[in-house]
């Protein structure tokens, strides 16, 4: 668990709806239905932390061209 700011805590709470929609769409809601909000928040936080950590690590590595960004979009 990270020491979340008020905005980070609110963002995690706001993400619960999309998380529930994805679980429902994938037919996975039943195992999560009786979980506490804190448990759901822990899952969301783990996913967000993993995503952000990966993006930061990728941004710090040089790509094939030797630049920080190797994106073919010309703008």
Textual characterization of the structure:
Helix content is 64%, strand content 0%. The protein is built from 3 helices and no strands. The protein has helices at 6-25, 29-32, 37-60. Helix 1 crosses helix 3 (37-60).
Rounded average pLDDT:
87
Question: How many DSSP E strands?
Answer: 0
Beta-strand percentage? under 5%
Number of helices: 3
Compute the separation of the termini in Å: 38 Å
Low-confidence parts lasting 5 or more residues at pLDDT below 50? none
Class by alpha and beta content: mainly alpha
Could you tell me the radius of gyration in angstroms? 17 Å
Order of helices and strands: HHH
Helix content: 55-70%
Main beta sheet: strand number and arrangement?
Answer: none
- Shape, per Cα inertia axes: elongated
Task: State the main characteristics.
75 residues; 64% helix; mainly alpha
List the helices and strands and how they pair.
Layout: H1 6-25, H2 29-32, H3 37-60
Helix pairs in contact: 1-3
In short:
By secondary structure, the chain is an all-alpha fold. It is built from three helices and no strands.
């Amino acid at each position: 668990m990270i020491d979340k700011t008020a905005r980070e805590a609110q963002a995690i709470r706001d993400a619960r709806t999309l998380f529930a929609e994805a679980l429902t769409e994938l037919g996975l809601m039943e195992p999560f239905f009786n979980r506490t909000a804190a448990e759901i928040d822990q899952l969301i936080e783990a996913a967000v932390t993993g995503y952000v950590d990966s993006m930061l690590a990728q941004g710090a590595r040089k790509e094939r061209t030797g630049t920080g960004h190797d994106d073919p979009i010309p703008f």
